[in-house]
Amino acid sequence: MSEFEPVWQFPSLVSVDAEFMQAVKAYVPNSDGQFAAQLLWKRGIQTIEQLEPFINPEAYQQTFASAFGDEMDRAIARLQLAYESGEAISIWGDFDADGVTATSVLWEGFGQFFQQGDRLSYFIPNRLTDSHGLSIHGIDRLAEKGITLIVTCDTGSTNLAEIDHANRLGIDIIVTDHHTLAEHRPDVVAIINPRSLPMGHPLAHLSGVAVGYKLVEALYNALPTVPTQPLHALLDLVAIGLIADLVELKGDCRYLAQMGIRQLQTQVTHPTRPGIAELLKYCRRSGDRPTDISFGIGPRINAISRIYGDAHFCVELLTSTDVERCRELAEATELANVRRKALQRDVEQQVMLKLAELDLSTTGVIVLADAQWPVGVLGLVAGKIAQTYGRPTILLNTSTVEASTSDAAASAQGHAMARGSARSVNSINLYELVKSQAHLLQGFGGHPFAAGLSLRTEDVVLFADAINQEFRARYGTAIAQHPVVNIDL
């Protein structure tokens, strides 16, 4: 076995109830049902009552938006006030596939109540010059346009300083997000985040696009006579964001993904979203399975911001009905994806050369930096390295760039900034590891398996030493030489 070849962990077979086995067999007529039953049983689907709604979304009892309680009530009350008083509102999105589809869902959903381009606008940070989340300069731009209400999607839960700045400008904020919550509730009108729900709640795993969809659902229920587009028309967008973000597809996440994939398939034969139809053509997919998103549409959407930085046109690509315009945008998207693949290969090769200089027997967290690495592909490469070497991996670009809000103070003092991405493996909570070094960082955010961060270039070596020391304190000195792959059958 080579040094970092993965070790496969094989489980023992479990004893499956005979009646359950027969019920499963009805769904797999060309099989005895044994393997399907084993898979389902290990995932907690162990009764006939659980089986049908898992397989058939029509039998699933979906959880309504009201499950978010007072936070959802406050959000809807504020949106109703904006609707009745003629306010201008803005959606604050994010540049990855979940964030872009979430922005698109709110753009279309809110567009039933607020005139698009007049009373309704959207803002997406630039991946190459900004960080994830709210920023002072972005809020200032929206204030100059007369915006009095910002609704975030897939971001905002920990942007306490930026939220305070918006409040001082007289701008209210509704946060919809699924990332880690701050220790204290931010001073916002409402924060709708499934991390506030119990672990076993059917909405606990919603991604950013699904949380945004739930907000639109609640607004549709509050003002049922206003919208002319059916709510379910948004489900193909929801499925794309859910699956591209790799959330656990259980509970309502699975239901929304199933219903969304059904709708996504229709874009091939009866396209209502010509942009999505064009993307499916480029990736030679029919839209009938999750891998069509995770290996087809999702990477292409993400490539837009990875290469161009600005992902604004992606919302137009996903929501426009102008066939010719969508063809132009889809072609630009495909070119970005081709370029992304080439850059990713180049950076992977350079990272491998730097890895050869590390003593991996004593390295718990891989931290590497280079001034030439393009920020847009660092997350992808970090994920590949983390999986290959079984260690959390942080890759940074150390070139001086235009300062985002969180970097402004350091840059103003003449410090070069390092910005990049981190990915984790093997149940190692990367977010907590990064958070433990918050005193060295200009900004960070994310969740246990993925994070983004920025710090002064001069602090990179100190950061690498400190986060490895923290790793050893939390997880010990025994570092696995072989990544572990858990096999189902």
Quickly describe the structure.
This protein has 489 residues and is α/β, with parallel strands linked by helices.
Descriptive account of the structure:
The protein has helices at 18-25, 34-42, 48-55, 70-85, 97-110, 136-144, 160-168, 208-222, 235-244, 252-269, 274-282, 290-308, 312-319, 323-355, 378-389, 408-412, 430-435, 460-475, and strands spanning 7-9, 89-92, 120-123, 149-152, 172-176, 190-192, 366-370, 393-397, 417-423, 441-447, 450-456, 484-486. The chain has a five-stranded parallel sheet with strand order 3-2-4-5-6, with helices on both faces. The chain has a five-stranded mixed sheet with strand order 7-8-9-11-10, with helices on both faces. Helix 5 packs parallel to helix 8 (208-222) and helix 13 crosses helix 14 (323-355). With 489 residues, the protein is of the alpha/beta class. Helix content is 46%, strand content 12%. The two termini are 22 Å apart.
Salient structural properties:
single chain; 489 residues; alpha/beta; 5-stranded parallel sheet; 5-stranded mixed sheet; globular
